[in-house]
Write a structure and sequence with these properties.
Helices cover 53% and strands 0% of the residues. By secondary structure, it is mainly α. The chain has two domains: 105 residues, Fumarate Reductase Iron-sulfur Protein, Chain B, domain 2 (Orthogonal Bundle); 76 residues, no CATH class. The structure holds iron/sulfur cluster (2 copies). One iron/sulfur cluster binds next to helix 7 and helix 8.
Length: 210
């Protein structure tokens, strides 16, 4: 998996974020606010979110920079970043923010907006994993682990990755079930239908609908 990498001090994207002033008619900020009600405009760049983020060393935009880019309406920068896909939704940032800005929730909304707008994700294998996971839960009511790994391996053109060293021992110890099993049925279908209705997405569209 190709990771984003921390931007350098001279990174032009970061300098641009520092120099610019918030713009009127900021569509990205409006969309984020409308979808989750989080007041990103209140962020004053203290950096506590970034300091606590366990994934920050691998991100191309720090969490506080994502907040700043949203304030500036820089949707291209945000949607094309690795950060929104690398974010593990651990919520450490949200818990640390002195203004109680729910950064993790904003990341979730940004992922969803990026998918809806058809932006090619910077982390295609992570997006593939999201889609396989949701597809399995939608069809079966639960995760079919073997199917997820097979789909991921085929999608990333590494057909034998983790098969002999991880998958096979787990199968032999009966920690993995070789065949798919169903659960939840009607309840799961209702849940997906409700999410689609709420967000206006198609069955395959987007991951983690907000
Ligand atoms: S902790 Fe909160 S106020 Fe500080 S930079 Fe992060 S989002 Fe902004
Ligand atoms: S929720 Fe995402 S951005 Fe926030 S601390 Fe966790 S990994 Fe970092």
């Amino acid at each position: 998996m190709k990771l984003g990498g921390r931007p350098g001090k001279g990174d032009s994207r970061v300098l641009a974020l520092k120099a610019q002033q918030p713009v009127a008619g900021n569509e990205l900020l409006s969309q984020v606010t409308e979808r989750c009600g989080v007041k990103v405009q209140e962020c004053y760049q203290c950096g506590k979110c970034t300091a606590g983020c366990p994934i920050a060393p691998f991100m191309d935009l720090m969490p506080r920079q994502v907040m700043r880019a949203v304030q500036l309406g820089q949707s291209d920068l945000v949607f094309r970043s690795s950060t929104i896909w690398l974010c593990a939704s651990c919520q450490t940032c949200s818990a640390r923010c002195p203004l109680e800005i729910d950064i993790a929730r904003v990341m979730d909304v940004l992922r969803h907006l990026a998918r809806r707008q058809g932006v090619k994700p910077a982390q295609t294998d992570i997006v593939l994993a999201h889609d396989l996971f949701l597809g399995s839960v939608r069809r079966l009511g639960r995760l079919y682990e073997v199917g997820l790994v097979a789909g991921l391996n085929l999608g990333t053109r590494r057909p034998l990755a983790n098969v002999l060293d991880v998958g096979l021992p787990l199968l032999l110890r009966r920690k993995l079930h070789p065949l798919p099993r169903r659960a939840g049925g009607a309840q799961i279908r209702q849940m997906f239908a409700a999410a689609r209705q709420r967000t206006g997405t198609s069955q395959r569209g987007g991951s983690s609908p907000p």
